[in-house]
């Protein structure tokens, strides 16, 4: 059977990496192969860079031409690093000085999941709900747009996404009862072009004549109001803090929405549209073309924000334009990206909240015994609130036809308490205790190679800690990922054999990337700085301290002008940490 394909647009050079995923399709695949399965064991550190910010480092550095662009978590400083000189010294630094109030409003650490390059600008969101554009050459601010009032609990942690002359952004704050939205800004000026809310009437959700969902229960007038108790939709969350993708053929953008608010389900009977869902929207107008809800009446905080990979796959013998989405609810979805029909829904890890999937209705079948009630404790619900996979993005390889993803192996003990809405404060009510599926000494994580056509894992690597880094696949038959306790690994994309690994100074929750430098050398880069949702493991033995270091690797540590990162050792004799194939 043939493998799937994807559109690599807008990538013009296999050597540059100008968006978090490398392309509109969210593939995180690189055609570079100088580093491959035969020589990856020669990888050594070429140079490092610390931004000094001790919050979770979740983004990937970007490279265009002879410069690397890095943005720190709060206070969201950006740096241009000169790749033509040894050690990549700083060309410029821009400090936007966001409001410190944002730190106290951020649900889950003062993180930033990425930034983007377009039209000579570096564009990214600030934690205090602004978006900035910085001139790539000078580091001077070009424009700055306020998107919301941070005092009301709205923050911004998602990666800005650039396509067709627009910047697409979304908000965070689902645990504070914000009203979730996605918006488009003009790349040249920063002017807001449109804003589409996740919850509310058709006018605010931009649902009109073009909206044609596949399933009957998603059709109707003002469903963003009518599927909520009266007066609750305005604080119904559906925040947009994950990743965007874009199909240039149809001019549609795709993104997911977060949990409903409050997280206590008994207070909001109904499907609670359009929380924990995906929207397909016209990139120019924001008009909804279709929507699909992954977890109707989400009772466990499963969200729907995880990435939408745009892959063309042979399903039942017919090539289909699809979205591949690994939801926190533990279903691996393959959707028709033109209609929103569920073509496949398979469990990629252990779960017990659902007894199966109803393809006729497009809804998971909920086990009534797993539905939480206020002041009643459920001892074992799997997955927990952060899913068996959180936001950490997977990678796809057209060489193998497999998707590679970091995942978990955990459950939770849950007790709910009724809550009231107070602006800018938690609108939550969930009390969780998380633990391994396999008992007190069990692994909390795993790395999975998934066949999206057949709907099963090709191989798995167990990990002691949750795997919360993104993945990178390359034409060198390699996949790179990191672990929460700081191991950066390269594995054979075909069989999962660990070919190389290096222990870094902190845990890894960032996104690996690769680029070809101005010296013609291929490099691999990853940020080391644990934080974010990985902090639920902070009490476990071996959990590392925070950090702020970007590591850049090359074969034998080579960098520009022939300098060597292991100067104290003759080439080939520098000590390596971690033997290939070992667990660490």
From TrEMBL:
- List required co-factors: pyrroloquinoline quinone
Q: Where is the Pyrrolo-quinoline quinone repeat domain?
A: 17-342, 466-524
Q: What is its EC number?
A: 1.1.2.-
Entry keyword rRNA-binding? no
Gene Ontology MF terms in the entry = oxidoreductase activity
Q: Provide an example Pfam family for this protein.
A: PQQ
| Family statement | Belongs to the bacterial PQQ dehydrogenase family.
The name this protein carries in UniProt is PQQ-dependent dehydrogenase, methanol/ethanol family
Q: Which organism is it from?
A: Qipengyuania mesophila
